[in-house]
Design brief:
about 200 residues, mainly alpha
Amino acid sequence: MELNVETISAVALGIGLSASTGFRVFIPLLVAALASHFGILPLGESFSWMGSVPALLSFGVAAVVEVLAYYIPFVDNLLDSIATPLSVAAGTLLMTSVFPSDSEWMKWIVGFVVGGGAAATIQGGSAITRLLSTKFTAGTGNPVVSTGEGVAATGFSILSLFTPILVAIILVIFVVVVLQLVYKKLLKKRKLTSHQGD
């Protein structure tokens, strides 16, 4: 696998699409499926099924149900608990489907580590945002958070098809910020428990 502009763009596209599944699981899958169906996004041979009509219908229905479910109070927090493994699976699938490698093993390893990792981090950030919104607004701010996530998932997925490197850079910065916030939160929690133990 040569490290050229095409490879970098493909990896960036994979990061953009897989990280977007951290906001919503099925919107990026639907965007990738539509792009594949209309010949905008060339997927690996073993992933051509993603552009099929049954896949489009499945992803479309799942995306609508997921978006609507996030507007139901407290169901949104419940969904976050199952969204994490789903987003990791979707992120892995999307990264693997666009990663340019002849080795299937390499594709899936990179897909899981990079795609799944990006999806899990973004999803973790979304879940924290929703929990904070529930805590401080008693759930009334959650529809705003849900709308923002839906827009982010759609926007980043579509932009990834046309400006993958730019989107990947933005999302990598976002991931770093989320990881820093989580680390600070854990550090604060550890300090509190050590003080209580004294």
